[in-house]
Amino acid sequence: MMRLDLHGYTIHKGWEHFKTYINLAYYNDVRKITVITGQGAMMKEFPTWAKNHDKIREFSQTPNNLGSFTVTLKKKG
Question: What's this model's pTM, rounded to 2 decimal places?
Fold first, then answer.
């Protein structure tokens, strides 16, 4: 599983990096990604980002680490 760590990014830069990373993963047939947001403002924004990305099938917050999400991408096709 691939991992994207967004610690240290501003909200806007984190969103841009997230979109690019998801698109690259999708076109490289990656199915699952762990996204680390930390437990601040980005964690609160993340569900909106994931719901609005057309290549994401589903996502869930990691139970033991609230500043982390597991993202499942749609199949290409």
Answer: 0.95
